[in-house]
Design goal:
Elements: H1 8-14, H2 21-41, H3 46-63, H4 76-97, H5 105-113, H6 122-141, H7 147-158, H8 163-170, H9 174-194
Length: 203
């Protein structure tokens, strides 16, 4: 099992040490999927979304020393979302100035049809962040559940399939599906609260 993560506040402080591999590993595990999903939602291909993630991480590494954790100056997620937004804006601006040389008009049409990347705001980032935290916590507790219990939870609790449909597909009672889902949700919430990640309201 992975080592216990730090709280959110201490994680931000620890990121100032480029040698703290555990802190950076946790940061990438939680925020990487967040940035990647937002990038994909803006129409970027998987490779471009991955490149954007790396750019965000590099930007954070360069700027983390200057980040002021004072809540009155905004949240860390808000700061991070601005970095991601600015990098997405820069990427689209560069593509408009230097379109692909392949002659692929679909790419050009995609760029023209994109909404303003500045609409990547903190609210969207926060929603993706909450989702990312749940998936992160779920991975940490996965080993505590049987395969069938976890499958029932994933189908009903993550994929949003009707419990009755899940019960029929897995050959179990409706009550068992609810039981498996409830146990997993409780355990994930406990994992998040244990490490001061207060993003459990949507579970």
């Amino acid at each position: 099992m992975a080592e216990s993560p730090s709280t959110h506040a201490s994680l931000v402080i620890r990121l100032r040490d480029p040698e703290d591999e555990q802190a950076w590993s946790q940061f990438v595990a939680i925020y990487g999927p967040v940035v990647r999903r937002i990038a994909r939602g803006r129409g970027l291909q998987e490779a471009d979304a991955e490149d954007l993630c790396q750019e965000v991480f590099r930007a954070v590494a360069r700027a983390i020393e200057r980040y002021d954790p004072d809540p009155r100056r905004g949240s860390f997620r808000g700061w991070l979302s601005r970095i991601a937004r600015n990098l997405i804006i820069n990427l689209f601006a560069a593509r408009r100035q230097h379109p692909p040389g392949s002659g692929d008009t679909n790419i050009l049409r995609l760029l023209e049809d994109q909404p303003d990347p500045a609409s990547v705001d903190s609210a969207e980032f926060d929603a993706e962040h909450r989702r990312g935290l749940v998936l992160w916590a779920a991975e940490r507790v996965r080993h505590e559940f049987s395969d069938v219990a976890w499958q029932a939870f994933r189908l009903a609790g993550v994929d949003g399939k009707p419990a009755r449909e899940v019960a029929e597909s897995l050959g179990m009672s409706l009550g068992t599906v609810y039981q498996y889902k409830s146990r997993a949700v409780v355990r994930i919430r406990r994992e998040l609260l244990q490490y001061d990640w207060q993003s459990t309201d949507h579970l």
